[in-house]
């Protein structure tokens, strides 16, 4: 079930296979590991949504409570964690709230 890029909306990741499919199918993918109870995640949410609509990167959202095994396998120890992939490979990871400008610069450098 391949999910095409929505009109700039983040994609809710449903499984490890779904995430792998997104990474394999797109040049630049930003994965936002978050939790509903995480205050900094809420602060970062508008920035992540704007990046989804304003850049060519596909933005994927992983709820670490829903997909605990995936988060553990990916080494996510705190949220928010933003993992960037370029051409199917892990490229860069940042932890914590980041400015939109810094995140956009990473997307542009990877793209």
Key terms for this structure?
redox-active center; Thioredoxin-like_sf; Glutaredoxin; alpha/beta; single chain; 5-stranded mixed beta sheet; disordered N terminus; 4 helices; cytoplasm; 39% helix; 111 residues
Query: What value does the average pLDDT take?
Result: 93
Count helical runs.
4
Shape descriptor: globular
Instruction: Name the CATH superfamily assignment of the domain at 12-88.
Output: Glutaredoxin
Briefly note the CATH topology name of the domain at 12-88: Glutaredoxin
- The counted number of beta strands is 5
Calculate Rg over CA atoms. 12 Å
* Head-to-tail CA distance between termini: 25 Å
Site (Deprotonates C-terminal active site Cys): 32
Domain Thioredoxin: 1-111
Disulfide bonds: 38-41
Organism: Halobium palmae
Task: Tell me about this structure.
With 111 residues, the protein is an alpha/beta fold. The protein has helices at 16-25, 39-54, 68-73, 100-110, and strands spanning 11-12, 28-34, 58-63, 81-86, 89-95. The protein contains 4 helices and 5 strands; from the N terminus they run E-H-E-H-E-H-E-E-H. A hairpin with a 2-residue loop joins strand 4 and strand 5.
């Amino acid at each position: 079930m391949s999910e095409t890029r929505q009109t700039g909306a983040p994609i809710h990741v449903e499984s490890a296979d779904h995430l792998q499919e997104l990474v394999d199918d797109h040049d630049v993918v930003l994965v936002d590991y978050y939790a509903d109870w995480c205050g900094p995640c809420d602060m970062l949410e508008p920035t992540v949504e704007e990046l989804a609509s304003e850049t060519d990167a596909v933005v994927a959202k992983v709820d670490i409570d829903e997909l605990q095994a995936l988060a553990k396998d990916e080494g996510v120890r705190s949220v928010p964690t933003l993992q960037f992939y370029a051409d199917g490979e892990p490229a860069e990871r940042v932890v914590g709230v980041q400015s939109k400008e810094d995140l956009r610069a990473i997307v542009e450098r990877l793209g």
